Amino acid sequence: MPTDHPTQNDPEIVDDSADDSESVGLPDDFEWKLLFDTAPALDPEQIRAGLIQHGLSADPILISDVTHEDDGASHLSIDFDGHFMLLVRWPEPFPQDAMTLALDCSNQQAADKAAMRRHKQYMTLEYLGGWDDPTERLIAMLRVAAAFTGHGLLGLLDLPAWNALAAAHLPNWLKPESLSEMRKLAPLGVLAGFVKLFKTEDRQNVCFCTKGLHRWGVNDFAMNGKLKDADQAYHLFEDLFAYSLKLEFLIEPGNTAEVGSTILRFSEMDESPEMFATPLGTLLLERVKRSDMH
Question: Model-level pTM?
């Protein structure tokens, strides 16, 4: 059970499972694919200038010399503010079948998705070490990606989060006010996935779910509803994500939570479990009566 007392806006988690869960460490899947019409040659000075343009202090930014491989790939390392990353430029496009989920499930405009599908080359940006805070890791990666806006970048793919971001939006997330909000709670649909899986041809019956919350050491969540319930699902997931970060255990199937006037029970995902498989599991939210909480 949590040791701190919930605030008025916090869901209260009731642990009905037999065993307590152990806290978990952070995974090592902080990697994005940067998609380009034509990827520029890796240029340390251009990258440094791009980082500074989007708000990073000029000193120190350490960027290694470029290493060229026989297969046409090239790579360099980037080190700033205690973040260490590897950037690899590939001379071919990223496989279309591997990018389908991230693009289709993202909340980007159709035109931006189409442009990313037509990309011709890509880069891999991998976080290698430095900070433990997953939000700070992803902000550092945003800074590097944004350094390529205006240099052919179309957008990025975050495959574990089933998410994509168009290049034009990246600088907005690096504004001081946006960074302040992001550090309070990583926004769904930006640093983690907020996915709508349509269950009927009329696209009205939907399974909403999160993807990528395991990076913060918490469960992902899912709930069934109508398309009109999208805002409610988003805010429920947001509230549960915020409160899960305070817990010293993972939420388990059988636990219940009270979010405002809504009472929820967590259960396993029986429908298409392979689709909802994540490193820390996805829990289905179901509305229940107060009498069913214990």
Answer: 0.87
